[in-house]
From TrEMBL:
GO terms for cellular component: cytosol. Its EC number is 6.3.5.2. It comes from the Bacteria. Keywords: ATP-binding, Glutamine amidotransferase, GMP biosynthesis, Ligase, Nucleotide-binding, Purine biosynthesis. ATP binds at S145, G146, G147, V148, D149, S150, S151. GO terms for molecular function: ATP binding; GMP synthase activity. Residues 118-307 form the GMPS ATP-PPase domain. This is GMP synthase (glutamine-hydrolyzing). The keyword Disulfide bond does not apply. Gene3D superfamilies: 3.30.300.10, 3.40.50.880, HUPs. Pathway: Purine metabolism; GMP biosynthesis; GMP from XMP (L-Gln route): step 1/1. Catalyzes the synthesis of GMP from XMP.
Length: 432
């Protein structure tokens, strides 16, 4: 990487991503490192100009209080400290992101002499070079869900290695209505990518039968994905690499030494130990908004770049608890109604993410003048920049009533519709 870089040192803060994003917003690349990173490791990282030591409430690890090492203090690297009294410039963490950026600006440019050369054009050039160096003349298999992340990876890898890339789209039975057909149309017909379509719905649903724990579901889905890809790779011959749409929030939320795991992501916490591929993950250091900017810079259409985010485990984490096929269909149909009504209301592209959830319990209701015992549908609609924080979209009441009416009329075995008003934090965007 040719860009200058600052390291955000995690000393137990809950706001490491805020600081990292504030530095990137200044045009300087940044990464979050664990508290025990050594000076030698920092010097081996490209173009490190300084360190922001970021303290906070999680500063006790294995019964010991963590802090800046004497080695780092004596390293000569400029250090700026938030909420920490162990050396450097001591500051209280500002509340607003703009204030963090303002507080760091002088340190980044005047003290560290960093250049504002972090942009998508430079990032793409770096990643194309790195991918070509990693892959050489060998072949890559891309786990293509059709979502934003994997679509941008596909575009970047097509630019880097062209026909050496084969995209595999696995229909695991947990996709949204009409999604497999759309993926085939866009990538095979329009982008002319080498695309293999695998219908593995029964295989995945059989594996998930009776599994209620969300972490186990994610790991089963992640592991089964890899098995499918291994099988497809054997058919193709000569596949040495697996490409994934892993992004920075996936890594951060899957846990670090000081931060507790929020949830494991299927492409981080669910990979099997006997993985037979070397991973290619060119977006793994980008936040969600940066992924979209990368897609636009690569020439992808807005309709693809601003497509609704969709988790790798798909509707499997929106059909809460043990997945049943009838409840899965109810999630799929209610989600299609929600997306249709948002489009009719002009909200497509204006609300970051919206979807439905069906929990694994029922409630009493009335249908056709008789008692019924059916599921509730929960609507979730949120706005965010980087998927680390989210606010709830304040929908117009007539729109909510219209969506509710359609779901109750058109989706079998549903007798209630609820709206989730919880921001992130304390909730997460998904329910599982």
């Amino acid at each position: 990487m040719k860009q200058d870089m600052l390291v955000v040192l995690d000393l137990g803060s809950n706001r490491n991503t805020d600081v990292a994003r504030a530095i990137r917003a200044l045009g300087v690349y940044s990464e979050i490192c664990n508290y025990d990173v050594t000076v030698e490791e920092l010097r081996n990282m490209p173009n490190v100009k300084g360190v922001v030591a970021n303290g906070g409430p999680n500063d006790v690890v294995e019964g010991k209080k963590i802090g800046l090492s004497s080695e780092l203090k004596d390293s000569g690297l400029p250090i700026y400290t938030f909420d920490y009294a162990g050396g450097g410039v001591v500051n209280t963490m500002p509340e607003a992101d703009e204030e963090i950026q303002r507080a760091l600006k002088s340190f980044v440019f005047d003290t560290c002499k960093a250049r504002p050369n972090w942009n998508m054009e430079n990032f793409i050039a770096d990643q194309v070079e790195l991918v070509r160096r990693q892959v050489g003349n060998r072949k890559v298999l891309l786990a293509l869900s059709g979502g934003v992340d994997s679509s941008v990876v596909a575009a970047l890898l097509l630019k880097a290695i062209g026909s050496q890339l084969t995209c595999v789209h696995v229909n695991h039975g947990l996709l949204r209505k009409g999604e497999p057909e759309q993926v085939v149309q866009v990538f095979q017909d329009e982008l002319k990518a080498n695309l293999v379509y695998v219908d593995a719905a029964d295989r995945f649903l059989d594996k998930l039968a009776g599994v209620a724990d969300p972490e186990k579901k994610r790991k089963i889905i992640g592991a089964e994905f890899i098995r499918v890809f291994e099988e497809e790779a054997r058919k193709l011959e000569g596949i040495d690499f697996l490409a994934q749409g892993t992004i920075y929030p996936d890594i951060v939320e899957s846990g670090t030494k000081t931060a507790k795991m929020v949830k494991s992501h299927h492409n981080v916490g669910g990979l099997p130990e006997d993985l037979k591929f070397e991973l290619v993950e060119p977006l793994k250091m980008l936040f969600k908004d940066e992924v979209r900017a990368c897609g636009l810079a690569l020439g992808l259409p807005d309709s693809m770049v601003y497509r609704q985010p969709f988790p790798g485990p798909g509707l499997g984490v929106r059909c809460l608890g043990a997945i049943t096929r009838d409840r899965l269909e109810a999630v799929r149909e209610s989600d299609a109604i929600l997306r249709d009504e948002f489009a009719r209301a002009g909200l497509q592209g204006k609300v970051w993410q919206y979807f439905t959830i069906i929990p694994d319990f029922k409630s009493v209701g009335v249908r056709d003048n008789a008692r019924c015992f059916d599921w509730p549908v929960i609507i979730r609609a949120v706005n965010t920049v980087d998927a680390m924080r989210a606010t709830v979209e304040q929908l117009e009441w007539p729109l909510l009533l219209k969506i509710t009416d359609r779901i109750l009329r058109e989706v079998p075995h549903v007798n209630r519709v609820c709206y989730d008003l919880s921001p992130k934090p304390t909730a997460t965007i998904e329910w599982e």
